[in-house]
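Our consortium's second objective concerns turning raw sequence data into structural hypotheses that experimental partners can test. To show how far this objective has progressed, the report includes one record in full. It was chosen at random from the queue rather than selected for favorable results. The single chain below, 316 residues long, was entered without modification.
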Amino acid sequence: MSAPSQTELSEVTRDDASLRRFLHGLPGVDQVGVEQRAANLATRSIKKASKLWAIDTAISMVDLTTLEGADTPGKVRTLAAKARRPDPEYADVPHVGAVCVYPDMVATAVAGVGDSGVGVASVATAFPSGRSNRAVKLADTEMAVQAGATEIDMVIDRGAFLSGRYGQVYDEIVAIKAACGDAHLKVILETGELSTYDNVRRASWLALLAGGDFIKTSTGKVSPAATLPVTHVMLQAVRDWHDRTGELRGVKPAGGIRTTKDAIRYLVAVHEVAGEQWLTPTLFRFGASSLLNDLLMQRRTQLEGHYSGPDYVTVD
C-alpha cells in the first residue's frame, strides 16, 4: 500500500466504511519477522559508559503508577514525593515523567508533585474494562481534567473494535480528546485482548487518526501486557505516521516491565524502530509501579561499584 497523503488521511475518517477500507488495507504484520527482530534487538548490550545515561533516561520516562482499590491519599502523596525525588541521596537523579492515579486521586497527586515538572496522569473511561456509556466516560475524563490532570489514559472499547465497529471507537476517542482540553491523551489498546499483530496495527492507526497523543499497550490488568514485538508494531505505526504527516506521536508500553534490563531492551527498540528523536519522555513512557526501584538500585551500582540492594530505596 502506498503511503497516503495528509489529505487522503482526512478522507479515511469520513465514515465507517472508509475507516474499514483503510484499516484492512494496511500491510499485514509479518509475525515471524517482527518476533525475530524483537528477539535479536533484545540481545544487544550497551557500553558501560552508556548505561548510566540509559538508566537516567528510563527513570525520566516512568509513569509511576498506583491503580488499586485500596489506594489512599497518603499512598498517593508518598508516590508523588518519590516521583519528584526518586533517590533523595542523589540530587542529580531525574524526576519521573508522571504519577498515574485514578480520577478521584488526581487532586492529591497534583498537590503532591507541585511545580516539580512531574505530570499527573489519570486513567479514565471506565478503566480498565472500558465498558460504560459515553456520557459516563466523558464525565470520568472531565472530572480528572478539572482536578488538574495533565494527561489522560483512556481505554478503547475492545468489544466494539473486535466486532469491526471502528467508527464507534474512532468517535469515542475524538470525543474524549475534546474533553481533555490541554491534557495529553494516551489511548490504551489493551493489546493482550486484540489477539493478532494485524489488530494491534489497525488499533494503533485508528487511535492516531482519532487524535491520540500516545498509543499505550495495556492497562496492566490483563495478561499478556506489554511485549517487545507488540511495542515494535506500535513504534512502526508512530514512525510511519510521522513519515506521512510530519506529526510526532508517542508510545507507552505498560505492564510487566520490572527490571533495568527490560527497560534498556525497550530503549534499544525505540532507537532502532522509531528513531533517536523518540528517546524522550515527551514521546516514550513506561507504565510501571516496580520498575523505578530496580532502576535506582542499578544506578547506585553504576556509581558505587557494588550492588546496594532493595533496602536502599523506598518501597512503593
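The partners drew two points from this record. Strands lie at 62-65, 98-101, 119-124, 151-155, 184-188, 214-216, 250-252, 286-288. DSSP finds 13 helices and eight strands in the chain. Both points have been shared with the crystallography group to help prioritize constructs.
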